[in-house]
Amino acid sequence: FVFFNDDFFILAPVEPADFFRDGRPQLRGKWLNPFKLKVKAYLRGKGLLAPSQSRIDRKELMWRSARLAGIEGRYFFNDHTPHPFLKSRQEQFYGDFPQYLTQNAGHRYRDQSQYNVAALADHLEIAAGHADFVAPRLTYLSPSQKGNSLRYVRRKLARSAREQHQFACVQSLDQCSPEARAMIESWLDAVIQPAQTPPSHGA
């Protein structure tokens, strides 16, 4: 099973080996130290964080996922890339710990007590020694957080072409300036080609 975020694009042809090799999930991300997250959790517990600083942080959810899988001292940060899951591993974990599924699904909206399901899948495979780490080959675009800088967009698109990225994540396209949005949409139209229909044997 491969999970994709809703703001995700496949830019180039893919094959099963891009996600699984010999049954091993191919993970895209990097290891991070949770020190800052520990400080933040401590300050939150003491009521010392401003409301703007207390918002849900997906890195915290990934760190919690690592600990659920028995990994301490670091966590694997997976950005908006493909997330290959082994359903058998999920079934085993939730069969042993059904309360975690009920707890995570029991909130109508996001909650700070939750964990990241994709990160849990990654960490369970890592803990089992059953995963490989591969280059993300990802173009990550978030123009609205960069002042809708066209220079930023051009630089990202040039790097994508230079490094032959397979995947892209475009954050908040609806919040981009008309110029940035037009540039990105034009790029996507040019890069993503329609699937070719195999010729008919009777032709």
Description:
There is one protein chain. With 203 residues, the chain is of the alpha/beta class. The protein has seven helices and ten strands. The chain has helices spanning 35-45, 58-68, 87-96, 98-105, 117-127, 150-163, 178-191; strands at residues 2-3, 8-10, 20-21, 24-27, 30-32, 75-77, 83-84, 132-133, 138-141, 167-170. Helices cover 39% and strands 14% of the residues. Strand 9 (138-141), helix 6 and strand 10 (167-170) form a beta-alpha-beta unit. The strands form four sheets. A three-stranded mixed sheet has the order 2-10-9, with helices on one face. The protein has a three-stranded mixed sheet with strand order 3-4-8. A two-stranded antiparallel ribbon has the order 1-7.
